[in-house]
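Why does this matter for the project? Reviewers at the last site visit asked to see concrete outputs rather than summary tables. In response, this paragraph embeds two records directly. Each consists of the residue sequence and, immediately after it, the corresponding structure tokens. Nothing has been edited or filtered.
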Amino acid sequence: MIKIFGILLLSFCIPAISTAQELQLLSFNDLNQILNKHDGKTKVINFWATWCKPCTEEMPSFVKAPELSTYPNAEFIFVSVDFQSQNQKVKDKIKELQMRGTLVQLNETGNDWIERLDQEWSGAIPFTMIILPDGKRVYHYDWFANYEELKTFLDKNLPN
């Protein structure tokens, strides 16, 4: 009986453990390798920070989007641009917002990486970009006020 209870308990815990996401501390070069990886997936990348009110206000919409079957081939990547010293704060915010996907905190000093990513981007956040499987990039330089705005952007730019 105890064995059966142990197996049942373990079977409930394993899915919870396997779905937990770890925050990766990456250099821009490491992040760029992920972004440029040709794996047939569309990548939706959102740059945000814990101190950015529009970033945290739009995040529930981003959390909701991957749960919908409308975007099964999209990989959602969330890149925090908080200072490295704010690592625990980033982890706490991720947990609070129930963020899932590829979770990255950029490990860079300075901001010369911004121009390497997109020469048109001022560095203001939130900033969202889509990288299609063929390498084409679509940029959104503002925040999404609600889920419908995000959904319209994704529907317009993501392949079916």
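We now turn to the second protein, recorded in exactly the same manner.
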Amino acid sequence: MSETLALDGRCLCGAVGVHASRASRHFGACHCKMCRQWGGGPYLAFEAGADVSFDGEEHISVYDSSPWAERGFCRQCGSHLFYRIKQGPIYMLPPGLFDDDAGFVFGRQVFVDRNPGYYRFANETDEMTEAEVFAKYAPPES
């Protein structure tokens, strides 16, 4: 079984289509406060690298959520389309956008030290704390 997938998906209203040529099979959950505020719970996403394209880009709004990342959503229906690390860029896409979800594996959780405690996943996963995430992804301060 391949570690990457080519996937086509769409937002809830269909105004935005998304194509990921090299999507990871492995998705994770982010428990940071910003993700929980954005969607009401942890953000579930897989890494798709830079090889992502969109149809209906005129319907995409982008929120610059930090100096190193931004979040995209459909301005028609509000569907979360991506979390993007600007340097790269590296897209993180929610698996729920895609009809073909049979190949996904839940394998990672980040900001585990920020999980509020009112939910827990039963899956055994790799885990990263806030400090570990910032050390890996955040650009050095100048």
